[in-house]
Amino acid sequence: MLCIALLPIAAKAAEPDPVVRSLPYPFSHVVSFISDVDEQRPWHGAAIHRVFNEDLGLTISDSLWPQGGTPLTSALFLGPGRLNRRNSGAGSEPTFALLLRQWHRGNIDHFHGWSEDGVLQLQNQIDPPLALSAVRTSQELPKVPVAISGQEAQSVRFYFSAEPPADLTIALHDTQGKSMSFNSGSIGRGKKVLVRVGKLGWIVEAIVPSANSGSTPLAINPMLIDRVDFIAPSCAGGCPVSLTRVERDHFSRQIVLDEIPWLKRWNIRPQITTSHGGNTLISGFGIEGAALDLPRTPGTFFTDPATVVHREAMADRIDTYAYYSDLLRELSVRAVWSYFPARGTDQYSFVVSDSTASDLTNLTTTYNGLYDVRRTSILNFDPSSVQAFADGMRLTAPEMSEEDRRSLYCAPTCDISQGDALPVLLSDSLYLINKGQKVRHFWYTHFGSGGSDFEASQEEPLTPKTLKWIRKLANQVYNFDGSVSLDRRPWSPPANTWFGYQIMQAGIKPNLKVGAGGSSVEITPWEDPVTHVTVPDLKAGTRDLHGLTLYVSDPEQASVDVGGKSVDTFTRNPPDETGKPSITIVGDNAPTPIIGKVALHDRGDVEIRSGKFVDATPANDFVSLEADAAGHAEIVFEPWNLDLWNTSHLHFAIRKRLSTAGSSAASSDAALKIEMLMEDGGVVTALESAQPPADHEGSSVWVVPPLTVPDQWRTHTLDVARLAWPKPLANQQDWRRPPLPLGRVREVRISLANAAPGEAIDIRDLRALRPSGNGEAPDGGKLIAGRVTRDGSAPLALVPVQLTSSSGEVVDTTTDLDGYYFFYHRRREEQLTIRALGSSGLSCFPQQGRKIEVVKNEAELDIAINECRH
């Protein structure tokens, strides 16, 4: 672990802005996490986020590596041309698919560098240089230490004193008698590893493929290469070029170029990447001249002169083979955490007991087009003994009792950045909040790593101490027990969302206009001065404005215009500590339709219990209920498969229509009620009422003011953090969080009461919203994907799958070896019919329905043949 002596950043004192609130209402603090994925097995990450994000309702995000080779690594690829199809440990899902699904649920949203970096780099200096003096010139390589000969490196690089001849072929031979040749076409591609020739000369890279398509073993083991032949007919009389170095490892620009098209098609587009401290550091960010030098300790493989011990971070070094920061920017990355920063204060900020909140606009940059990410850490952590630890904790929590400080102790082998020490970070945040300090914590940690003797399982992925303290954080965020005052509530957004929020705050004020009445808001998109991208990106809806809270005169009359387009996904907030009401814009780029443009009958079963019901049609994108003679109407919608992930808000629009049958009423007294019965037994309710309900009856409730004016659409965006909770259980041993709109939806009940006979209500755009900082494809296209199985578990390979769009387009594909199908670049708001076609003529739709409305990336449109819907 790299240890750097750094000083805390002095915070700026700032007067509250008259229009822009510092943080989203109702929050006054930030406790977010930017977690490295070291040692986190795929199943463990999924289990951790089941607790964090589903059981507790926190929108905490995690990281992954695009590439990693060691067993049980949370990486999408084993290397170029090699998907990570190893079993994830979570059912029958391969690792790449589990991570893809976790990404598009919002549980993962950033990279911990590109590569796991588990392969040591070997570097053979050719001294004297080998001149290409004949048609065939050969170079022998010494044996490598047995301890590292089994490494699965795929990259072999050759350094030349001048540009190699155009007709060059390179043949590799290993100690096992295997050989492989790379022709002039491959060599031409291999030259793309360099954007600009540097002081080390020309480089050609050969990427060793798998022995067979889709297999794990490589065609030849680069670590066992003992001879290389350079064949160039043009060099029969000699060429003015010499070989100067041979290098073997598992990362380069060419490898990124091979893997990044997959990420683009899958719409895995993070805004943040951190630098991993692996075995080479080459895929990380760091300033030129900074390096880590390791000793050549006797008795280790570092004594071999080919093993590289001088380690540099090269992601932004344009004259190296590992330069790829331009490719990250193209993918959507806007910020990086450096392994070797230009300034220590750009790497960490530290928790001290007298700290105040730093200015959110105080962002820095080191690399072209990228912001610096500053993570929060703790200086005073001494795990050598319980007492030493408790004494260190006193510096940040002087009023915490000795008993409480000692109870946080993990083990002598616990590092403050490891997952088992997470309670220390949480306790520091909550201690400072409850002592009146302003907290902006972006914690550096590793959720899945250990340090103690705790053995994680899928059922119990967290230590008891971690579970206790993460529950405390959830209670502080949501105020489940009613004990948390407004000034002590922290926001806990995903990593991408929190950093994107800071970028937005840095540029919003000059581009914001509030109308003369104080309630109409206009936002003009601007070019960010560092990343040079447009904020907000209009292709991403209100993603980049998520959380922006603006003081207005009258929230009920508020309107928002962004780039000339009206926006209706904003909450209406009561006065905060300033005494002023406000609105909060909510990101709408990853919605889950509950009532959308697809008819409910195409997505589940509908029971009409009273009144009349009209489903959505191509002509009308809403559903309607009409009251019976008693003034009631009710339907129950049972979705075949409707899952909600990381829901932060619920949005819908309603319109009331008075009866035309002789009624003289000019306004409506009808009351709408929407109830969602979740699979865990919880009920979440939104209802129209002039007063809050006296008894929640076990449900979590939003109350909205009744819409009395007929024939006008009214939108509501409701914050999960402002639900009215049922009374908490007295028995803390059996504690579980109150009902939340998370997990599988069993039923949606919609009712109308106290209406005039024949009065109707229209409902559209009932959507669950979640924060998402994921980038957008240039064409705005979405991923549509799923898995075909025999029974929900056993995958079916090579099954034909057909997509038919509402425009009449038909696209055919087949499932891969793991049963997955993929359709790329689907247009937002188109409606799709997807069918798996069986050999017997049977066609089966996804469990989500006969039609799919494209509004976000979908990676879980699964088809189980034994439960075929057709």
Word description of this protein:
By secondary structure, this protein is α+β, with helices and mostly antiparallel strands. Strands 33, 36, 37, 39, 40, 41 and 43 form a 7-stranded mixed sheet that branches. Strands 32, 34, 35, 38, 42 and 44 form a 6-stranded antiparallel sheet that branches. Among the domains are: 122-249, Jelly Rolls (Sandwich); 508-585, no CATH class; 592-769, Jelly Rolls, CATH 2.60.120.260; 782-867, Sandwich (Immunoglobulin-like). The two termini are 56 Å apart. The longest helix is centred in the middle third of the chain and has 15 residues, at 464-478. It has 10 helices and 52 strands. Helix 8 (422-434) packs parallel to helix 9 (464-478). This is Carboxypeptidase regulatory-like domain-containing protein. Keywords: Carboxypeptidase, Hydrolase, Protease. InterPro entries: CarboxyPept-like_regulatory. GO terms for molecular function: carboxypeptidase activity.
Considering the chains and any ligands shown, give keywords for the structure.
870 residues; alpha+beta; Jelly Rolls; six-stranded antiparallel β-sheet; 12% helix; CarboxyPept-like_regulatory; hydrolase; Carboxypeptidase regulatory-like domain-containing protein; carboxypeptidase activity; carboxypeptidase
How would you classify the helix and strand content by structural class? alpha+beta
The CATH superfamily of the domain at 592-769 turns out to be: Galactose-binding domain-like
- Total DSSP E strands: 52
What integer is the average pLDDT?
93
What gross morphology would you assign?
A: globular
Helical content band: 10-25%
Largest sheet, if any? 7 strands, mixed
- Unreliable stretches (pLDDT < 50, length at least 5) are 1-13, 353-357
Q: In the CATH hierarchy, what is the architecture of the domain at 592-769 at level 2?
A: Sandwich
Radius of gyration: 29 Å
| Head-to-tail CA distance between termini | 56 Å
* Beta-strand percent range: 25-35%
CATH class of the domain at 592-769: Mainly Beta
CATH topology of the domain at 592-769: Jelly Rolls
Number of helices: 10
